[in-house]
Amino acid sequence: MGKPWVLGLTGGIGSGKSAAADAFAELGVATVDADHAARWVVEPGRPALSKIVDRFGKGILLEDGQLNRAALRERVFAEPEQRQWLEELLHPLIRDEIQQFLAAAQSPYTILVSPLLIESGQYKTVERVLVVDVPTELQLARALQRDQVPEAQLRAIMQLQLERDERLKYADDVLCNTGDKAALYEKVGRLHEYYLSLKGGQV
Q1: 17 is in an annotated binding site
Q2: Which residue intervals of the chain bear CATH 3.40.50.300?
Q3: What is the pTM of this model?
Q4: Which of 21, 36, 122, 177 has the fewest CB atoms within 10 Å of its CB?
Q5: Is 78 annotated as a binding residue?
Q6: For residues 116 and 118, what is the distance between their CA atoms, to the nearest angstrom?
């Protein structure tokens, strides 16, 4: 079997990206999540974590030595130059982690799940883009229910993501996720059959 082609899967916060990725994974598709890679690169003992501590102090750690993500998020949201520093540190490390995973994948195609697939330019590294789409108010309601964070913080995260209409311009395929889990799995199953028929992600 040749090298698998890569599908980029994205969508706004609360759209159901992870649920869609899980559905593909159950069908045997290798998936890697950029958010998970972002966690791996700041595990205790990894060089990135010590650099973050050097910059922000030991108060940025939890008692067990893990990164306090909530504290770091507050700092970088409040100070754009800190966010830029953090992105410049982490993005190359995350990219390397993802590439290692994709290089080892054994399925006919693989999936890169990334909330900022388009904003970060990662979409240029994949053969095809699937956008999981829901109306903005449903997106907000789902994310509020799931994350239990203040609405203002969620809206701040959404501000960093592309507007819904803008994101859809980059889509080769759109998965409308306004229904229940069964409906989502049915749509993923149909897309999977279609993707298996593609060579290199192209029609």
Answers
A1: yes
A2: 1-29+107-203
A3: 0.82
A4: 36
A5: no
A6: 5
